[in-house]
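Lab manual, section 2.4: Encoding a predicted structure.

Procedure: take the sequence of the chain (342 residues), apply the prediction step described in section 2.3, and record the output as structure tokens. A sample record is shown.
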Amino acid sequence: MPVVNFEKYCAMLDKAKKEKYAYPAINVTTMDTANAAIEGFAKANSDGIIQASTGGGAHATGNLKDMVLGSILLADHIRAIAAHYDVNIALHTDHCQPGKVDTYLIPLIEESERRIAAGGEPVFNSHMFDGSELPLAENMAIAVPLLERCAKCNIILEVEAGVVGGEEDGVNNENAPAEKMYTTPEDMVAVYEALSAVKGARFMFAATFGNVHGVYKPGNVKLTPSILRDGQAAVVAKHGQAAHFDLVFHGGSGSSKEEIAETLDYGVIKMNIDTDTQYAFTRPVVTHMFHNYDEVLKVEGEVGNKKKYDPRVWLKAARDNMADRVVEGCVDLSSDGKSMGV
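Recorded output:
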């Protein structure tokens, strides 16, 4: 099955780390954006990660605004569509802050437990707990029990320490203190020691090195990828090479290709892409509406042109352009042409 199981997901991550590339992790909110992500990965012959967020899940259910139901629906849709393609897709949930653990992550894990008990697979292959708003000890006090529960379901847990600036999915860190935006080597050692105590568990770590959610003009985002290098070195020096983290790059929109490439040398195996794919999806719609103004609107008593205002027309253009942006992400992260095969 192109939506991977635990063993295949681990093999994907191991391969990326060994060969120094990373998987684009694409946030989706609808069937069309989910299809665009799958089509982009297939076009690039790249395995990849597709993820739902609390806001994305809520959007997927319309006025119900049910983030759990919506995330499950997106996951099940992706599972059904991906089965017709020859690349591997892992399913992930993005940032979940402490205040939403009981109303988002726990219900999703419970649904996975039900499916596993019935002989199936978990809904998602991995989840993210974002406890970066908390002091590190409090962050890990929530993360460790979550990891224990995820491990029993063969679910990988991603955690974050340090703040990603900017704004995403309704969480605003635009005024975060500068020192909070850089994870220290001591923090990385502490995170490894807390999480590695859970035997048999697998985890990823979103360390921060000046990352900012959103998109900015070149030069406005001050990344310091060497923070990842120094943190990894500290962890390995104390606990050995096996302790080397699987790292996740958040807030990469607007980063230079050179900065992205440097992070791959330091263990980044997953990079979130949301802002850029949002724009890629919307841009062709704008073009369509401007170029066909008098046909998508019933101007001055006319009837318009159904062939122009049919949503399938402009949604296809949006989907195709977003798929192309996913291909670009695969090229930037060097995952293109490297699918493990199904």
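Check your result against the sample. Confidence is low (pLDDT under 50) at residues 171-177, 215-220.
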